[in-house]
Amino acid sequence: MPTNFLFDGPEDARVTILLAHGAGAPMDSASMNATTKALAAHGFRIARFEFGYMASRRTDAGKKPPPRADKVMPEFIAAVDDLGPTNGPLLIGGKSMGGRVASMVADALFDAGRIAGLVCLGYPFHPPGKPDQLRTAHLLDLKTPTLICQGTRDEFGVRDEVETYGLSPKIELLWLEDGDHDLKPRKALSGFSTADHLKTVATGLEAWVQRVAK
Q1: CA dist 172 → 5, 175, 208 (Å)
Q2: How many domains, in total, are found in the chain?
Q3: 64 falls within a domain
Q4: Residues 109 and 145: beta-carbon distance below 8 Å
Q5: Which domain holds residue 13?
Q6: Could you write out the DSSP letters of every residue in 51-91?
Q7: Residue 131's domain is classified under what CATH number?
Q8: Which pLDDT score is estimated for 181?
Q9: What pTM did the predictor assign?
């Protein structure tokens, strides 16, 4: 079954970003919509898609629980196939689980010259409250240029934890002060709004792309 995409941003953009959703919310969740809008405003072409279990929630089949991340790796590769040729560099990534799955298929696609990089929005380094159950083994020697945008109070991996992981030198982290797993800060405490942080993500991504995907 062909992948159903949701497109935003200029069709003739030089850089296209293929994004998958998190485990519990669809590709058009409020968080994904806001992030996509910010990225599109900076000239990126965004393509969003849903894994089969999430797409089925829009049908009579109803709600299905998310499968293990490795089970949907073929669906991410199929989405890259179905997206087809792009004007210029293609980045893959996503929110939370979507970014994790992208990170698990990235090196094979990068080695084949099919993608230029990986973008993770709130990477789930471990389940909340379980810092010993790390999901980082494949990130230690990742070869794909990667940007992880992470809130400093993300319960899936705070800054003090992540900085001890020994991640691949190909991975850059963009920290967003007081951001949660949706990159949302508490404005009264941090002085930042979600819109501020999403603008930082977009400008940071723009600068990063200039370095890794010229």
Answers
A1: 28, 10, 9
A2: 1
A3: yes
A4: no
A5: 6-212
A6: -HHHHGGGSTT-------GGGGHHHHHHHHHHH---SS-EE
A7: 3.40.50.1820
A8: 97
A9: 0.96
